[in-house]
Design goal:
Helix content: 25-40%
Radius of gyration: 22 Å
CATH architecture of the largest domain: Alpha-Beta Complex
Number of helices: 13
Shape: globular
Number of domains: 2
Strand content: 15-25%
CATH class of the largest domain: Alpha Beta
Strand order of the largest sheet: 9-7-5-2-10-1-11-15-19-20
Structural class: alpha/beta
């Protein structure tokens, strides 16, 4: 069986966690290969709702290895909270493994993330303020602290000291902002966190994290090689999505890593030929959290229907998601970026009850040019108007459907049109949040 990458094809929140959880039944290992706790995957199993930020979505399968790869940035406090949360509900974390080469999110990364967003004001890009960007920046600057450093006090202390020295000016600016707010009588705000960082305290805190995480730390790349060389299936799970990719997304309104399938190789330590299938997860409509261009965004009754019925609030931040029609121009672009071999369409049930369903099939620029391809220039993208094909809605609920034949003809026509237009088969359709609320399409399983 092959290595399988599961990636988002929109702006995130497509339901990758559920698809990973489903496909994990036929895999031996599930590897998260990028991102941090700025991502949130929600899985509903046996009536229980689980929300994961760092732990791979396959953790509910106790016989599967669940790996946090070297491409992930880890907030150890958040990770340990997740581990304890699993234990409290009777889920064992014994099958979790953490790459010794993964980088750590430090308290000063969270401070710097917040400071940068506050400094930008109205021009802020809408980060989750979890320290993800500064952590990846330190990784590139060779100032990062890695998981393995938690196991060596001397190295850990030296690395923290070096990193803190380079950040003193930015931290001082944040301290000035805090004093100004106090002087003006403003109440203390979570938006301006405490900037007081002590080398000794930080070192001791992170050494304690290391003692608790040590049983899970290993050479995860070699673990993946062992599984793949034995012919077992390994799933590579991405966070965020293609249109938030640092290189290929709607920059600067993107994440700080590469959530496309090609990045699974670097983020897990495997070769390109180890990945034979790429599953792209696409919501039956579109959503986006935070700032940035969103051509098919709507704020009418249909948009409110999607928001309310789809419970469109961010798993990590709780922020309301912007809603819009499915954008096939952007989807074709994401499919090509990822080399997608199959699509999993989620939340089809949310569209039930709409009289008309629209799908963007091309854009028109401000100058009137017809654009069949995703524009390479951000200025053009900000000004495009989508052109839609319209389909009759399906009034019936589809949440009880389990076979293609159970779907209304209008729903089947919608799925078929998407598949034919983008040139990739829709192998799986989600019709509700539950693990069992899926339809394997004709010939897919």
């Amino acid at each position: 069986m092959p290595g399988v990458a599961i990636v988002g094809t929109q702006w995130g929140d497509e339901g990758k966690g559920k698809i990973t959880d489903l496909l994990a039944a036929d895999a031996s290992a599930i590897v998260r290969f990028q991102g941090g706790n700025n991502a949130g995957h929600t899985i509903v199993h046996d009536g229980e709702t689980y929300k994961f930020h760092l732990i791979p979505s396959g953790i509910l399968h106790e016989d599967k290895l669940c790996v946090i790869g070297n491409g992930v940035v880890i907030d150890p406090g958040v990770l340990l909270d997740e581990i304890e949360g699993l234990r409290k509900v009777g889920v064992s974390p014994a099958n979790l493994r953490i790459s010794s080469n993964a980088h750590l999110i430090m308290p000063y990364h969270v401070l710097l993330d917040t400071a940068d967003e506050l400094k930008l004001g109205k021009l802020s890009i809408g980060t989750t303020r979890r320290g993800i960007g500064p952590a990846y920046a330190d990784k590139a600057l060779r100032l990062g602290v890695r998981v393995q450093d938690l196991l060596d006090e001397k190295i850990l202390r030296k690395k923290i000291m070096t990193a803190l020295e380079s950040k003193q000016q930015a931290l001082r600016e944040l301290s000035v902002r805090r004093r100004k707010l106090r002087k003006e009588g403003e109440p203390e705000s979570d938006d301006v966190p405490d900037d007081r960082l002590d080398l000794h305290t930080l070192t001791e805190e992170y050494l304690a994290y290391g003692h608790r995480l040590e049983p899970y730390i290993t050479d995860t790349a070699r673990l993946c090689w062992t599984e793949l060389d034995a012919g077992r299936t390994v799933i590579f799970e991405g966070a965020q999505a293609a249109l938030l990719d640092l290189d290929h997304g709607t920059y600067p309104f993107v994440t700080s890593s590469n959530p496309i399938a090609g990045a699974a190789c670097a983020g897990a330590g495997v070769g390109p030929t180890d990945i034979e299938q790429v599953w792209g997860v696409v919501k039956a409509y579109s959503t986006r959290v935070g700032s940035g261009p969103f051509p098919t965004e709507i704020e009418d009754e249909a948009g409110r229907h999607m928001s309310e019925k789809g419970h469109e609030f961010g798993t990590t931040t709780g922020r309301p998601r912007r809603c819009g029609w499915l954008d096939l121009v952007a989807l074709r672009y994401a499919i090509r970026l990822n080399g997608t071999s199959a699509l999993a369409m989620t939340k089809l049930d949310v569209l039930a009850g709409l009289d008309t369903i629209k799908v963007a099939v091309r854009y028109r620029s401000k100058e009137g040019a017809v654009l069949d391809e995703f524009p390479y220039h951000q200025t053009i993208l900000h000004g495009v108007t989508p052109e839609y094909d319209e389909f009759p809605g399906f009034g019936d609920e589809v949440s009880d459907a389990r076979r293609p034949a159970d779907l209304p003809p209008e729903a089947r026509n919608y799925i078929d049109f998407v598949s034919e237009t983008v040139g990739v088969p829709v192998a799986l359709v989600g019709v509700g949040p539950g693990r069992d609320q899926v339809i394997w399409m004709d010939g897919s399983r």
